[in-house]
ABC transporter domain-containing protein (marine sediment metagenome), 228 residues
Amino acid sequence: MENVKMPDSFAVEIKNLSFAYGKDSALKNVSLKIRSGERFGIIGPSGAGKSTLLLHLNGILSGDGEVKIDGLPVIKESLPEIRRKVGLVFQNPDDQLFNPTVEEDVAFGPLNLGLSREEVEARVRETLKQMNLEGFETKTSHHLSYGEQKRVALATVLAMQPEVVAFDEPFSNLDPAMVKHLIEIIESLDATVILVSQQILPVMACCHRLAILKDGQVIRVGTPAELA
């Protein structure tokens, strides 16, 4: 990853965030700042708290501490705007694909934004082209290959045109060719990108900076070169 000068504005600010599932502590005093337009990786072993952290970005979970998106606090009153700004791509595409056809899956989010039918159709066409899914409009998502389902799931998020795109384990169960293709897609996105993964190499290949999470705590932050 080349050194790229990033803007001084922050898309994501997390300060002293802690969260527990019952008595089990999942996050302990986590603080991070992610710059606008940055590709930022969060790596660590299973159970480190990576996915839990991700779910705080759009208010699915709410812990003790502070989370801001583009300067806006992630609190109950701001959730509608926060969820327009932050798109989550879940590890399992089944969690995001539930309509009869690919076209309907991708159109679902923009329709819920209250956009006109013409604008929704334009976004669907543009996003399917971006994901190399032209011709898939009338196909059933659950009849596609796993890699194709992952691309459709990403398309459902990109059609919302979020400012922040956050991926949970995007490289899991993908062969090397599919990993390479997904990295190319991620690098082409005009958004702040956050990648949560146990797989270190693909994250280091496409991220400007990374944080290492262990036992719910951030233990190191730096560029791939600094952490290598």
About this structure: The beta strands are 10-21, 24-35, 39-43, 64-69, 72-73, 86-89, 164-168, 192-197, 209-214, 217-222. The longest helix spans residues 117-130.
